[in-house]
Amino acid sequence: MNTTPELELRELKALTTVIKDVWKDDFSEMAFASFKRRVEKLMLKKQIASADELVKFVKDNRQNYDEFVTTLSIDNTELFRDPSFWRSLRNELRNLSGTKLNIWLPQVASGEELYSLCILLKEKNMYQDCAIIASDFNEHILASAKKGIYPQRHIETWQNNYERLESGGNLTTYYTRPNQFEVQLNPELLQQVTFKVNKITGSEIVGKFDLIIYRNQLIYFNSSMQEKVCKTLMNNLKTRGLLAIGFKENIQSNTCYLNLAVVSEEEKIYRKLRD
């Protein structure tokens, strides 16, 4: 019987140092508890018994490192997760100014958030007037999201969420079943999407966006990195643009909060007041 490995703080710090030196990715400012939990999950899955074995696993092989990154980055998610959020966003979309909407998802992860957005925009007849940037810090993650392939067991949850969206549409028109085990979301949903490798922990100006969706991700950073990430989000958001950060977040102590008006406190949707 496998037992869950236990890593000490010094071992995790040593791991992040090796990763930064070899792969140039910095995980040093992730919240300790969540980082530790995800790393130990990978160790259990791959039957890695020690910190030294883990360092060797991550350092010596790009494919192993990509698997490590995927474990850290991709939460279990679903189409239209938290349907009340998508209903609120749908109501606010009509208030965004401009003939063409620029939208950014800084962390595309498994991709289901992105596909949810595209379906929502199609059903609002707004999709063709949108330009969407979908980012993540690793090409391997983006490649997986582009494929849009998920286990067939997800369908029941997707359908339940979609019904609660109350759109009046038919979810089955958005996916096919290539085999008995998987479903594939229609590639046509990505016609207005550009995928871009980008590290949200950096300060790059990706563009100026009418809407940024970055839900329930700040909680995985420590407070100083949360401040830095929020600054990056705000610098990429247009005045009067919408920022959706997810109901699990609390940014009232963050400097950026002073430049935000509450659109939905329950769903944590905000509007930028000024540049």
Question: Which helices and strands appear, and what pairs or packs with what?
Answer:
Layout: H1 9-23, H2 32-46, H3 51-59, H4 62-73, H5 83-93, E1 101-105, H6 112-123, E2 130-136, H7 139-147, E3 149-151, H8 155-165, E4 175-176, E5 182-185, E6 193-197, E7 209-213, H9 223-235, E8 237-244, E9 260-264, E10 269-272
Parallel strand pairs: 1-2, 1-7, 2-6, 7-8
Antiparallel strand pairs: 3-5, 4-5, 8-10, 9-10
Helix pairs in contact: 1-3, 5-8
Write up this protein.
The chain has helices at 9-23, 32-46, 51-59, 62-73, 83-93, 112-123, 139-147, 155-165, 223-235; strands at residues 101-105, 130-136, 149-151, 175-176, 182-185, 193-197, 209-213, 237-244, 260-264, 269-272. The protein is an alpha/beta fold. The chain has two domains: 9-73, no CATH class; 83-272, Rossmann fold (3-Layer(aba) Sandwich), CATH 3.40.50.150. The strands form two sheets. A seven-stranded mixed β-sheet has the order 6-2-1-7-8-10-9. Helix 1 packs parallel to helix 3 and helix 5 crosses helix 8 (155-165). The N and C termini lie far apart (57 Å).
